[in-house]
Amino acid sequence: MSETTTTAREKSGHPITNRVGGVFMHVSNMERSVNWYHKLFGMPERSSVTDKVHALAMQGQGLVLDQHGYDRKLAPKDRPMLMFDSPDVHAAYRYLQQIGVAPESRIEEYPGMAFFTFRDPDGNLLMVCGKPGSRDGLGGDGPGTADAKQEPLRYDGGGCELVVKDSAYYADATREGLTLTGRAFTESAFAVPLRIETSVRLEGGCLRLLYGKHGSLTFNYGPSSANGTGEEFYVRHPAVDKDFGYVDKGAIPVGEWVRLSWTIRERTMEVRVDGRLFHEQEGYYGNLISKAGIGCDNGRITMKSFVVEALSEEETAPRLPVSRNGTAADELVPDAACHPVMTADGLWLGYNEEWGCARTNAAYSAPFAVEAVVRSDTNSVVLYGGSSARVKFHPDGSLSFLDPVTKEELWAEGKGRLSGRFATVRWVVDDDRTTVSVDGDCRFEREGDYSGCRFAIGLGADVGSAVVVRSMEVEER
């Protein structure tokens, strides 16, 4: 039975299920932890992880890996330990108040899901999570202020007509604009390149601009102790289910009118607040046709205008010469999946659903060194040695190395941080050791027998990201 179907709730049903829905394991590096637990349980390796919270399905309960505590520098006592399921989170909240248990936080509510935290007598932090349920205690199962049989609320934003989704808890067209808690979308779909622009006032909670199957910009997000509000900014890729978090990015003003614009081109995104650049990010966003929208969680917005503007198309082109011992003798040939283009800065490579990279035509035997001048605004650069070796610079600033001989995945925390500008990455494979350096600074070193290594050199980005390669040189030692 679908979630939108109304069912009769048993009056005797308890609002907190006698079952542990999840056990929290707080981790500092989600990708490393997911790969470690997958190996532990014999599950397929995950080469990329999309969220700060990742649930592993276990036999009975879920193991919930959570990175928010480390990112927010929360004390261990302020990180939840267990999660209990609830068919009605609002009813569970009222029940705890009735029995004298003070919730630690207000309910955080999102489409189809809500949660809050509380403590046991020893101070252990616990969580209740499940369907939002009834706000008024009358047993209603769905959000909205109008009868489900009525026509949905529509609002003319001055450039697009928005339709309020049934997930909205509150929506009203006032003289100031559309006041909303929940989601509203355009009925029409729009193709990239485009610009979404809105004049909006945030009255608390977090604000979301929406585009694509997954895409969203989340402003003013924060920890549960602040009712899910703060100065965190999140970008979810419009084409792939991949999140990028910026914990100290800053917040937009609350209680004031602001003008937000989100420009999405084939290979770049740009976000502006009142005309000032707030965020920019590279990736492949071409071939998207989708509705646009706006929303608010744990608060309320008033939207005065909403416009989607079509922009002109961009041109594309491929390939990059590779120098070998000072002479142009090879090429970096990109897969079509990278959506390659030659820009004024160099060879642009992206990565969405389908993996791809650019690789040399020739294979090189140890000892050799490869030096690439690269830039990635998400700190996402991956060097490949055939299919057996990998040097990966992660968005969180860590570096990982997949050893081609032992097949071990080794991590160096804080050693993968790039400047955001062009950097020279040098990977040396000698017979008895391998090293990785950035702008002359050695970031990783490992001894081993690499004398039998021979592979083509590849370079690319991680999922949802892009890298620009200005130059590459291979030195046979």
Describe this structure in words.
The chain is mainly β. The protein has three domains: 20-130, 2,3-Dihydroxybiphenyl 1,2-Dioxygenase, domain 1; 154-310, Jelly Rolls (Sandwich), CATH 2.60.120.560; 320-476, Jelly Rolls (Sandwich). The chain has three helices and 37 strands. It has helices spanning 30-40, 68-71, 89-98, and strands at residues 20-26, 53-57, 62-66, 82-86, 108-110, 113-119, 125-130, 154-156, 161-164, 170-173, 178-186, 190-191, 194-202, 206-211, 216-221, 232-236, 243-246, 257-264, 268-273, 276-282, 289-290, 292-310, 320-324, 327-334, 341-342, 347-350, 358-365, 368-375, 381-385, 389-393, 399-402, 409-412, 423-429, 433-438, 441-447, 454-460, 466-476. The chain is globular. The relative contact order is 0.11.
Question: How are the SSEs ordered, and which strands pair?
Answer:
Blueprint: E1 20-26, H1 30-40, E2 53-57, E3 62-66, H2 68-71, E4 82-86, H3 89-98, E5 108-110, E6 113-119, E7 125-130, E8 154-156, E9 161-164, E10 170-173, E11 178-186, E12 190-191, E13 194-202, E14 206-211, E15 216-221, E16 232-236, E17 243-246, E18 257-264, E19 268-273, E20 276-282, E21 289-290, E22 292-310, E23 320-324, E24 327-334, E25 341-342, E26 347-350, E27 358-365, E28 368-375, E29 381-385, E30 389-393, E31 399-402, E32 409-412, E33 423-429, E34 433-438, E35 441-447, E36 454-460, E37 466-476
Parallel strand pairs: 1-3, 4-7, 23-37
Antiparallel strand pairs: 1-4, 2-3, 5-6, 6-7, 8-9, 9-11, 10-11, 11-22, 12-21, 13-18, 13-22, 14-15, 14-22, 15-16, 16-17, 18-19, 19-20, 23-24, 24-27, 25-26, 26-37, 27-36, 28-33, 28-37, 29-30, 29-36, 30-31, 31-32, 33-34, 34-35
